[in-house]
Amino acid sequence: MSAPHAIIASFPDTPSFYHAAEKVRDAGYKKWDTYSSLPVHGMPEAQGQPRSKVPIFTFCGGLTGFTIGISIVSFMNYFDYPLIVGGKPFFSPVFPFPIMYELTILLSAFGTLGGMFITNLLPQHHNTLFENDTFLEVAGDRMVIAIESRDPKFDAQATRQFLESIGGTDIEEVTA
After folding, report:
1. Domain count of the fold of the chain
2. What is the per-residue pLDDT across 88-104, written as a single tens digit (0 to 9) for each?
3. Rounded CA gap, 77 and 82, in Å?
4. Model confidence at 1, in pLDDT bands (50, 70, 90)?
5. How far apart are CA 123 and CA 32, in angstroms?
């Protein structure tokens, strides 16, 4: 028999699912996750997840785009093609606004996409849970909590009893 990868437990409704996640967090488990086909309001807080760092990537991308936009226009007006037309200055923030705006938006979007890939550890091409029939029912109406065997607190029997005590049903051991 192969080693266990995780123990999964189903929950019948959203409130019990939410409160079970709080209990798993409070029990001190670290390598676990919740899975459902619908978003559950407040679940990141129930899991004890910190605020997302993706906005930092978005801000850095936008700041980079804005800086590149200003630099391109400044370089062209001061060095590449220094031509005074109608007494206008070499640089004014009014005329290059479309370039600065578009580069800010474009690189903010790229920063957001890159931040999502980095913080979510994407791409994940394979997870042992993907081969489990009970877990695949999450696409329908099942709500599942999976506690992984690599968790320092994991003990197959104790974890199974814990999931039963917090209202889990259809508790199953997923093997690698």
Report:
1. 2
2. 777 777 878 999 999 99
3. 5
4. low
5. 19
Cβ-based neighbour number of residue 134 at 10 Å = 16
> Pseudo-torsion of CA 43, 172, 161, 17, nearest 10°?
20
Are 109 and 141 in the same domain? no
Look up the domain containing 149 and give its range: 4-51+126-175
User: Where a domain ends, among 119, 134, 162?
Assistant: 119
Q: Which long-range contacts link 155-163 to residues 24+ away (Cβ below 8 Å)?
A: 156/4, 156/7, 159/7, 160/7, 162/24, 162/27, 163/7, 163/9
| The two three-digit tokens of residue 103, written as one number | 């580069």
Are 26 and 162 contacting, i.e. CB atoms less than 8 angstroms apart? no
3-class secondary-structure state, position 157: helix
Whether residue 63 is found in the same domain as residue 115 = yes
Buried b / exposed e along 94-112 (16+ C-beta atoms within 10 A): eebeebbeebbeebbebbb
DSSP for 13-60? Answer: SHHHHHHHHHHHHHHT--SEEEE-SS--TTHHHHHTPPPPSHHHHHHH
Amino acid letter at 121?
L
CA–CA distance, 73 with 38 (Å, rounded to integer) = 47
Which residue type, as a one-letter code, is found at position 61? G
